[in-house]
Amino acid sequence: MKDFDEILTAEQEIQETERPAFDKEAWKEKQAQNRETAYEIVDTTAAQVSIDGSKFQQYLDKQIQFDRYSVRNALLIMAKRPDAVKIGDKGYWKEQGFYIRKQEKDNPILILEPSNNAFVRDDGKVGQYYNAKEVYDISQTTAKLKQPQQATRDMGLLLNALIYKRPVEVSTVEGFPYEAQYQTESKEILVRSGMELPDVFRSLSKELAHAEFARKDENYSYDEADFKATCVSYMLCKKNGLDTSNIDVGRLPDEFADMETSEIIGELSTIRDTANDISSRMAKVFEQHKPQKNQEQER
Asked: What's the first-to-final CA gap in the chain, in angstroms?
């Protein structure tokens, strides 16, 4: 009868024999190819988004869904798998107890992640190298998708959250000619009194975006920023389960069509970051109003 130590040693030798040796050069070559492919996809998709209103709205919807991802990665996800709902690399899915389906292994979504290496540009600014990472949507794995439940919140709570730590004062005015408007001179938002609460949320979220733009950009112009503010309102409304059918984000500004990839990425990043900043403030209010489990449930 074999000694147990011998059995363990023999098993380890078998495993080591079966595991292919890591080929660093092949890995570097594949990384370079994937990175080039990813940037090509970003360029192509950004160009489509800048001239096609339906594509632009599709991007916003994907960015809402993957709000922690960069604009480039939202574009990459949208281009490769527009129906994606939850993504992770092979290691992540394995940790969850699931595996990539055989027919999907060669069909990954590429996303860009910053590497540990930086470089200095010609203008003296520090640049960042990126690696192309292969990830897979849950539909490409053996996991079963559970339909996410949209949190339903009281409109009063939504509005309280929206104005939490607001950057400017908000006042209601009877008979105000606009639903709401950011006042560039007095740096305040005026809201028409007597509106339905969903309309207040929609119009106020847009003007809060204006206030954020004005606070951060010394060259701020209300007219030039209005479309971006509309997009922020669309994202906040959709994220919180409000009707967005009357928010037009498909009529793109003419200047979008003439923008380079870096410029359109910059515009989209401003929209994303502003929506996320407001959402982060709202989340603090939601956290405070979470229903507490009773003691019997906790036992």
From this structure: 51
Q: Which pLDDT tens digit goes with each residue over 108-139?
A: 999 999 877 666 666 666 667 789 999 999 99
Contact 60, 234 (CB under 8 A): yes
258 HSE (CA, 13 A, CB side):
3
Q: What is the pLDDT of residues 10-66, one digit of tens each?
A: 555 545 445 567 777 887 888 889 999 999 999 999 999 999 999 999 999 999 999
As a three-state string, the secondary structure of the chain is: CCCHHHHHHHHHHHHHHHCCCCCHHHHHHHHHHHHHHHHHHHHHHHHHHHHCHHHHHHHHHHHHHCCCCCHHHHHHHHHHCCCCCCEECHHHHHHCCCCECHHHCCCCEEEEEEEEEEEECCCCCEEEEEEEEEEEEHHHECCCCCCCCCCCCCHHHHHHHHCCCCCCEEEEECCCCCCEEEECCCCEEEEECCCCHHHHHHHHHHHHHHHHHHHHCCCCCHHHHHHHHHHHHHHHHHHCCCCCCCCCCCCCCHHHHHCCHHHHHHHHHHHHHHHHHHHHHHHHHHHHCCCCCCHHHHC
Contact in structure between 163 and 155 (CB atoms under 8 Å) = no
Domain ranges in the chain are 23-140, 155-288
Cβ neighbors of 237 (< 8 A, separation 6 or more) are 201, 202, 205, 243, 244, 247
